[in-house]
Structures are given as structure tokens and as C-alpha cells.
Amino acid sequence: MQDLTSKSKSNNEQATADLTTTDGSSNQPVFSKNSAKQIGSQGSSQSASLNDFRETIKDVLEQITWLEVNTMIVSNITLTKFDVQDFYTNLIENTMYKTEGGLRDIKKALLERSTDLKQKGALLSQNELDRHNRDLEIYNQDLGIYKRAERTFSDRQSSVDPRQKEQFEMETACYEEVSRKVLQLNISKNPDGSLIIDAQMTRSLRKLWELEQSVLNGERICAQTKLSLDGDLTNRFIEDLFVSNSGKKIDPTIAKLVFDLHNHAAENAEKQWSSLIITCVNLVKDLIPFRNK
Prior knowledge:
alpha+beta; four-stranded antiparallel β-sheet; 6 strands; 12% strand; flat
């Protein structure tokens, strides 16, 4: 029997809603009325901290305009944890070596390097040969990495196994989509190349990481509920729960389990979502008297 998992999230980025997942955390809100009053009572000397606190609440409110609950069937549950820097670095590498466009760009760059090395090699003095040989060695290493990646890409692209071919196409499209969205974030970097990340950026990259993980792990959404702040409610269920689709109909016992798990997850998520909204609204009310400080 395959593993079943239910996950919930609240977000306002519809573009990634259909595939992305969350960690399903059930922690209660950590803010309280007393925390707002304590910050405000310290006067103008703490105005910067108060402003940061207000901005944090604002960010939270922007992120909970709707609630999404997904129930999925997965082949395995990964132990991989989110790390901003690792995700960004790996995404660049995957986009370069696991997409057609990325491999094409690498090939072009290698051809330019090869031409440049040949031209310089013919004009070098004896004292400059050591440096040239080191550059040539690095080039050959990069060329080897490209050839292996290109061969793997070609083999997967021409696979006759329908499942492997489908997974390959999904992964390729995922890397292209995620990398495109990352470019839209206008990420800043330190002189050493490390990312300059704030809370908003971390949330955005985490959602893209969840999208990537859902595709790589072959997660399949069987039931989905979306509830927006204005009251709109949408339920979606995969057709295999009801009718046979090329012999893929889910066993009735498993189907009932999916429905039960999803209903419980949706009820619990809605309670926590409502509690978080009430907490944030009350905090905003408590901060109003200190808005001019």
C-alpha cells in the first residue's frame, strides 16, 4: 500500500498552488496581545523594532488570504529539509544540466572557451604555459561534466518507458518554471556570492522548493480543498477515486480512507487558519495606538 499524507497551507500565490505542498506544521500562533503592548509601551526609542514588528504582521496577513489543503498519495516520504542557499545553488545546477536550454547554453559557452584557449595557446610564452595548462585542465573537466549530463538527458528524453518519459518531462518543465520564478524575485547577493535573504524571500523560495520536491518525489494530489478569505470554497478530487480510468481506479477502501483523511485535515486546517487570522487582526488593533511613534 502506498503512503498517504495530508498537507495544508495558506498563501496568495495562485501560480504555484496546484503543485506546491507545505510542511503541515500545526504550531499555534506565537504572538499575543501582551507582546504588542510590551513593544509599544517602550516608547519612541523602540520605534524601529515596533515598525519591524508591524511589517512582520503585515507579511503574515498577506500570506493567509486563502487556505489550501491537499491530500496526496506518494511513493516515499523524503527526509530532505529546506535550506535556502542549498536550494538556490542546486536549482542553478539542475537548470543548467537537466534542461534542454541549459545544456544548449553550456555547450555554447564551452565552444567559446575552446576557441579562446586555442588562440591563446598559440601565442603563449614558455612562462605562461603553466597557467594555460591549468585552464585547459579545468576546461576538460567541465567538458566531461557536460558530456555526462548531455548523455543522461538524451537517454531520459528518448526513453520508451511511458512513466519514465512522463517523469522526465515533468521534471524538465518544473526546473524551467521554478528557475523563471526565482529570476523574478530579484535576489541580492553578498560579495562572496551568498544570498541576502529576508523573511519574505525565504517564504517565496520555500514554496518553490516545495513545488520542486513534489515533482521530484512523484507526489500525486488526490483531493484538494481551497477556501478564500471572501468565502469561496472549492473542492477537487481526482477522477480515479470514482471511475476507472485505464485500469487506474483506486481501491474503494483506499478511496474512503483518502476522503476521511482529507475531511479531517480540512477541518483542522480551517480551525488553525481562523485562529491565526483572529490573532493577527487583534495584534493590528493593539498596535494602532502606537502607529505614530
